[in-house]
């Protein structure tokens, strides 16, 4: 702690050597206790508060896969497909906002503290979801332009939630379970994707008779499906706004070691509440402000920069495939399992697409997340990630080069391979990469944008899609 200067409120210009040693000892002891702590209620509470944000983010992001199909039947009766340029816009807009949100809220969290900005991003998500659900056509405004605008705003909120929830969970976690706690938070994404499919199925069922009489009733369906995304976000907003500041930030950035140590003591005592009142410490640590020069100096060294570069590239590579598959799963289902879907009846087709999404999520996405929760602290991040890349390379080679066969004569093989690939995505690559460092999130959002534009240029021909994915993986 040689780079820290301790000053007394009473004698601000005097450096006390004995105080320096005492505060340094107190800080190290408090952080050691936090690292070695046993799992208690506060850890679960933190995971729930952060996890609901990921649940909502996944619901809002991936529900567009189902909503896009509904919009096609509701507003484009000629071919029941949203035009390519509009479909690209509504699927890509949130990813554009993600980049802005992650950079903006990541900077704000370091500048003003985690607590001060935690909850703002959720408020943005709530407002943007309401705006999306209420978007409408008029003489001077396009409904699709409104959806795209509000999904950009939604993306800013989602982008802000990613780094904030990850860093707060990490900073409250004990060393032995840090990986599992972060994996648990990210695992809520699987339940968000599942809920999107369930809500769509239920809403379609409620309006079944009306839709079969008049397809325009689908206008109710997509607005309800989108609007329900506000419920979990609103339910957890209060707890986001009242969560205490991270003890690590309190001590190492704000400089209030006494308050940080006190909060850790309350946390370890299994206290359900940590008061947020201002703790008037007698001594505050004066720490130098971080700068872009510090960032460049640190990551300019290859031993540090290679970690950031490696995780960024990993995120970009996997999300080109993962988000391409997830955002366009309905189209994939129609191309890969044509005998299963009814294309003559809008209700049956949309219902079966939602059902197919649920099956893939239950058998692939959710098991993948929970495999990571159970194994990440046992097998390690690097081993799981390398295994995932190897398995996915083999799977996509098989799917890509045997497409004509597996989607005609052996469709069940395609379904099995597709589900296995989703398990590997989540358990072996996506979740472990989250634990290496959080700045890498920005890279994966860029990959989503590139992926969606590329897919649209192929007009969703699935054979070309598989080949495109394989090129990206190799």
Automatic annotation (TrEMBL):
InterPro entries: MFS_dom, MFS_sugar_transport-like, MFS_trans_sf, Sugar_transporter_CS
Molecular function terms from GO: transmembrane transporter activity
Gene3D superfamilies: MFS general substrate transporter like domains
Membrane-spanning residues: 48-76, 88-105, 117-136, 148-168, 180-200, 220-241, 307-333, 353-376, 383-406, 412-429
Protein name: Phosphate transporter
Signal sequence, renumbered to the chain: none
Membrane topology field: Multi-pass membrane protein
Source taxon at top rank: Eukaryota
Compartment annotation: Membrane
Any single Pfam family the record assigns to this protein: Sugar_tr
Domain Major facilitator superfamily (MFS) profile: 46-474
One Gene Ontology cellular component: membrane
Keywords: Membrane, Transmembrane, Transmembrane helix
């Amino acid at each position: 702690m040689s780079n820290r200067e301790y000053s007394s409120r009473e004698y601000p210009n005097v450096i006390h050597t004995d105080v320096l040693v005492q505060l340094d000892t107190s800080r190290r002891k408090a952080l050691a206790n936090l690292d070695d702590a046993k799992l208690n209620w506060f850890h679960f509470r933190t995971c729930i508060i952060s996890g609901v944000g990921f649940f909502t983010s996944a619901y809002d992001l991936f529900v567009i896969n189902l909503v896009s199909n509904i919009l096609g039947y509701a507003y484009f009766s000629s071919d029941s497909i949203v035009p390519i340029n509009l479909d690209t816009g509504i699927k890509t807009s949130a990813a554009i906002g993600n980049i802005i949100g992650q950079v903006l809220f990541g900077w704000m969290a370091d500048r003003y503290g985690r607590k001060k900005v935690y909850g703002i991003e959720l408020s943005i998500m709530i407002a943007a979801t309401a705006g999306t659900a209420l978007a409408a056509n008029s003489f001077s405004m396009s409904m699709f332009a409104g959806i795209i605008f509000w999904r950009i705003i939604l993306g800013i909120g989602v982008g802000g939630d990613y780094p904030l929830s990850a860093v707060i969970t990490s900073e409250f976690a004990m060393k032995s379970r840090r990986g599992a706690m972060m994996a648990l938070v990210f695992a809520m994404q699987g339940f968000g994707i599942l809920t999107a499919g369930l809500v769509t199925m239920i809403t379609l069922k409620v309006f079944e008779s009306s839709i079969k009489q008049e397809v325009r009733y689908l206008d109710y369906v997509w607005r309800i499906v989108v609007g329900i995304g506000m419920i979990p976000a609103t339910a957890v907003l209060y707890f986001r706004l009242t969560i205490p500041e991270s003890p690590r930030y309190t001590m190492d950035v704000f400089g209030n070691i006494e308050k940080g140590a006190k909060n850790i003591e309350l946390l370890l005592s299994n206290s359900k509440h940590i008061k947020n009142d201002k703790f008037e410490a007698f001594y505050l640590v004066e720490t130098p402000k971080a700068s872009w020069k510090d960032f460049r100096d640190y990551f300019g060294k290859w031993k540090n920069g290679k970690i950031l570069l490696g995780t960024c590239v990993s995120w970009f590579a996997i999300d080109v495939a993962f988000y391409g598959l997830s955002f366009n799963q309905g189209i994939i289902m129609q191309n890969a399992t044509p005998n299963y879907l009814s294309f003559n009846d809008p209700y049956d087709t949309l219902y079966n697409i939602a059902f197919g999404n649920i099956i893939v999520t239950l058998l692939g996405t959710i098991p993948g997340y929970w495999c990571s929760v159970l194994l990440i602290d046992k097998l390690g991040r690097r081993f799981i990630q390398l295994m995932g890349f190897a398995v996915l390379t083999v799977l996509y080679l098989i799917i890509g080069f045997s497409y004509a066969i597996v989607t005609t004569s052996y469709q069940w093989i395609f379904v099995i391979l597709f589900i296995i690939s989703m398990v590997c995505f989540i358990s072996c690559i996506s979740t472990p990469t989250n634990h290496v460092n959080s700045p890498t999130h920005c890279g994966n959002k860029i990959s989503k944008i590139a992926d969606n534009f590329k897919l649209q240029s192929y007009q969703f021909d699935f054979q070309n899609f598989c080949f495109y994915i394989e090129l990206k993986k190799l």
